[in-house]
Design brief:
75 residues, 68% helix
């Protein structure tokens, strides 16, 4: 098998292990393009600023747990 084929197969096996929850923590690397990484960083900073300013709308775990479990149970 070619090196490219081996890399694809290795990535496929990693993806399956991650999806199944059997991958060892820290054994894989997820590549995120720089522009996406920058967007997520800006969004996280905006949300933290909203929480710090008291303008964020937040919910307690108790408020979201039952609807979330119901939604996940319907899959």
């Amino acid at each position: 098998m070619s090196k490219v084929g081996e890399g694809i197969l290795r990535g496929f096996k990693q993806a399956i292990a991650i999806a199944e929850g059997t991958a060892k923590e820290g054994s894989y690397v997820v590549h995120t393009p720089a522009e996406i990484e920058a967007s997520w960083k800006a969004e996280a900073e905006r949300r933290v600023a909203d929480v710090d300013a008291g303008t964020a709308v937040t919910s307690s775990w108790e408020e979201i747990e039952a609807p979330l479990r119901a939604r996940l149970g319907k899959r």
